[in-house]
Amino acid sequence: MRIRYRILWFEDDEQYFEEDLQPEIKSFVESKGFIYDCTHRKTGADLDTLISSSVYDLIISDLNLGADETGEKLIEYIRDDKHVLTEVLLYSANEAALQQIVSNKGWIERASFSIGLGNLPPKLKSIIQFSIRKVEDVNNLRGLVIAESIDLEKKIENVLQMFFEAAEDLVSASTKEEVLSSIYTKKLENHNEHASYIEKIKLGDIKELIDQDVLTTNNTYEAVQGILKNRLKGVNARLNGGGISNEDKAVLAEKQAQLTQLRTEFINFKKEIIDIRNILAHVEEKTDEDGKPYLQSMMRGRDPIKFDDGKYIEVRKNLQKHSNNLNLITEHILQII
Predict the structure, then answer these.
(1) What is the 3 state secondary structure string of the chain?
(2) Which of 50, 90, 170, 268 lies most in the core, judged by the most C-beta atoms within 10 Å?
(3) Of 37, 34, 27, 272, whose CA–CA distance to 149 is shortest?
(4) Would you kindly state where each structural domain of the chain is located, as residue ranges?
(5) Mean pLDDT across the chain, nearest whole number?
(6) Residue 96, Cα to own-chain centre: how many angstroms?
(7) How many CB atoms lie within 10 A of CB 174?
(8) HSE (CB half, 13 Å, CA atoms) of 259?
(9) What is the mean pLDDT of residues 179-204?
C-alpha cells in the first residue's frame, strides 16, 4: 500500500453497491488520507486478468453473484489456485450459508465474514483500519511519505521538461532561455565549487540536467515557480493591454484566476512536501503516554514536529493535493495564453 488503498469488490447489485455501500467506504478511506481506488465487478468473468494485473489491499465479495456464480468460488480460486493471500471479506444475509463455509473450507486464514447487510459497513471499516494500521508503523510511514514525495518531485521535473519541449507557439525561445538563465544564476550562487556542472547548465538541455542529477529539487521547484510567475505576468499584460474582445477578456480573466490559485498552492509545496521529506530524514522514535510509538523531528533551530496518526493523515492529504495541482499546472503550461 502506498497512497492508494486498492479494493477489488464483487457485487452483482450495482445500484446497491453504488448507492448504499461504496459512498460510506470511500469517505472512510479518504478520511484516513488515502486515495480510494476500487475496482468493481458484478461477476468474476475477468478474475484472472484482475489478479495478475494489480495488487489489492482488500478483496470483497457478496456470497451470491447470480445463478451460476458465488463469492465462495471466487475466493476459493483466489486462495487455492492463484495463491493470493490478500485480506478478503465474504458477506451475505444468509447466516447458515456463511457458517457452513467457515466450517468446511481450509482457506479461512486471512478471511473475514459479515452476516447481515447492516453489519457490512462497520465490518469493512474495521478491516480497512486494521490493514492501514499495519502500514502505519512509524518507520513504514516514513518510507511511504518519502516515496510519495519523490514521485511528486519527479512530477515537477516532468513539468519543467514539458515546458522546454513545448512548441514555439506555446513557449518562446527567449522565455525558455530566461528560465535556464535563472537556474544558472542560482546554481552559480550556491555551487561555485561545481564548475563542471554549472557549465552543463549553460550549454546543456533540461533533460540532460535532470538525467545527470545536476538539478536539485529546489532548483526545479524554483524554476516552475518562475514559469508560473511569467505565465501570470503574460496573462496580466494581455488583460491590461487593450484591443481584445469582451469574450477574450472573460477567458483571460478565468486563466488569471486559475493561475493565481495554482501558484498560491504551489508555493506551499516547499513547506508541505519538500521540507517534510527532509525533516523525516532527521527524526527519532519516541513513545507517548499510552505506549504508542511516534516519530519526532530533531532538526536544530526548528520547533519539533510530532509525526503521529493525525500528522500522517495531514501529510497524505497534502501529497494528493499537490499531485492534483501539478497535473493542472502541466495543463496550463501547455496552453496558449
Answers:
(1) CCCEEEEEEECCCHHHHHHHHHHHHHHHHHHCCCEEEEEEECCCCCHHHHHHHCCCCEEEEECECCCCCEHHHHHHHHHHHCCCCCCEEEEECCHHHHHHHHHHCCCCCCEEEEECHHHHHHHHHHHHHHHHHHHCCHHHHHHHHHHHHHHHHHHHHHHHHHHHHCCCCCCCHHHHHHHHHHHHHHHHHHCCCCHHHHHHHHHCCHHHHHHCCCCCHHHHHHHHHHHHHHHHHHHHHHHHHCCCCHHHHHHHHHHHHHHHHHHHHHHHHHHHHHHHHHHCCCEEEEECCCCCEEEEECCCCCCCCEECHHHHHHHHHHHHHHHHHHHHHHHHHCCCC
(2) 90
(3) 272
(4) 4-135, 138-333
(5) 85
(6) 42
(7) 7
(8) 24
(9) 69
Residue 56: pLDDT over 70? yes
Residue 302 has pLDDT above 80, yes or no: no
Q: Which long-range contacts (CB under 8 A, 24 or more apart) does 120-128 make?
A: 120/21, 120/91, 121/21, 121/24, 121/25, 123/89, 123/91, 124/25, 124/28, 124/60, 124/89, 125/25, 125/28, 127/58, 127/87, 127/89, 128/5, 128/25, 128/28, 128/29, 128/32, 128/58
Out of 12-16, 80-84, 189-193, give the one with best mean pLDDT. Answer: 12-16
Q: Is-contact 60 21, C-beta < 8 A?
A: no
Residue 23 is predicted with a pLDDT of: 95
CATH class of 4-135: alpha beta
Residue for grid cell 532548483: 219
Give pLDDT tens digits for 1-17.
678 899 999 999 999 99
The CB density around residue 337, as the number of other CB atoms within 10 Å, is 16
Distance of alpha carbon 63 from alpha carbon 77, whole angstroms = 14
